[in-house]
Amino acid sequence: MEIKILENKEKWNNFLDNFGYLSFLQDYEYGEVEKSLKREIIRLGFFEDDLVGVCQLIGYFAKRGNILAVLHGPVIREEKLDEALILLLNFLKENKLNKKYHFLRINSVFENKKEILEKFLKNGFIIAPTYIVSENFWLKEIKDDDEMLKQMNKTTRNLILEAIKKPYLEIEKTTDLEKFEIFWNLYEDLYKRKKFVPYPKELIKKEFEIFSKENKALMFLGKMEGKYYSSALVIFSHKIAFYHHSASLPTKEPINYKIQWEIIQEAKKRGCRFYNFWGLAKKEVPNHPWYGLTQFKKGFGGFRIDFLSTMDFPFKLRYWLIAFYEKIKRRKL
């Protein structure tokens, strides 16, 4: 096996399509999203005659420390992982990226198995004190409507059926970048009410802009009597619909359920295999800030996948100060 820079967009995305990749954060387009925000993007391919794996790295520079991150990657078969990690670490050293960054963080989509953890540990990785993106997914298989409704819990099913009968609950689907502000106003209201750290506005906007140009994103907007109450940015890639960003205002009307049903219908129209609701709360306890959202997602039926813990490879001694800070910060959340 050998490793080398790979900047062929078609070859890159075709590999991910054929692999059956469950995320979109290793997509070529997502690298362009981060690049537009002045991040360093390094796209590497693993080759054995033909392409057998890809790894998109993103360089984040911050006051606290510089992180070289792999979000939901590398994408390669489990049996080839050990050799791929050795090649990756050697590439980073040979290209002096270990001097530029304080550590490498891999937030993978490998199954949470002891054998995979051991592959990382024997190559010098340690379990990270925190993660960058979700370490689990809630997936719903796309089937015919009756079967999907049967898989939902009674409350969710009844609310969807109620919402469908209410024509005044209007759902718009758009790629119009000007309508992003509608989403942002709802999102801004949500993070102020719920008191969580939001994703940067420019990141979400660029994600919408870049993926929609490739017919891979839609903004769903729900309104009643001319006022917008609900919104969701959905990415379509690898025959999966991804529920990535959303926001809504409190209301007794089931508009959030109608917007979800419209997303599922669009996923079905596009021939998707799954609807990926993205992550759930790690601990499903009522006092968790994402408990309500977790129960909402699970109400639609489906199954949970847990990934390997995020892994770090320290490059410099300063990493241990960064890790200590992250542990303390996470304990307060």
Structure in words:
There is one protein chain. The chain has 333 residues and is α+β, with helices and mostly antiparallel strands. The protein is 39% helix and 26% strand. The protein is built from 12 helices and 15 strands. Strands 1, 2, 3, 4, 5, 6, 7 and 15 form an 8-stranded mixed β-sheet that branches. Strand 3 (50-60) and strand 4 (67-71) form a beta hairpin. The chain is globular. The N and C termini lie far apart (42 Å). The relative contact order is 0.16.
Task: Describe the protein's topology.
Elements lengths: L1 E4 L3 H11 L8 H9 L3 E9 L1 E11 L6 E5 L3 E2 L4 H14 L2 H4 L2 E5 L6 H9 L3 E2 L8 E6 L3 H7 L2 H11 L5 E5 L5 H15 L6 H13 L3 E8 L2 E11 L2 E9 L6 H15 L4 E3 L14 H8 L4 E4 L4 E4 L3 H15 L1
Parallel strand pairs: 4-6, 12-13
Antiparallel strand pairs: 1-2, 2-3, 3-4, 3-5, 6-15, 7-15, 8-13, 8-14, 9-10, 10-11, 11-12
Helix pairs in contact: 2-9, 7-10
Major sheet characteristics: 8 strands, mixed
Order of helices and strands: EHHEEEEHHEHEEHHEHHEEEHEHEEH
**What's the total helix number?**
12
Shape estimate: globular
Mean pLDDT: 95
The gyration radius over C-alpha positions equals: 20 Å
Distance between the termini: 42 Å
- Fraction of helical residues: 25-40%
State the low-pLDDT regions, or none: none
**Class by helix and strand content?**
alpha+beta
Proportion of strand residues: 25-35%
Number of strands: 15
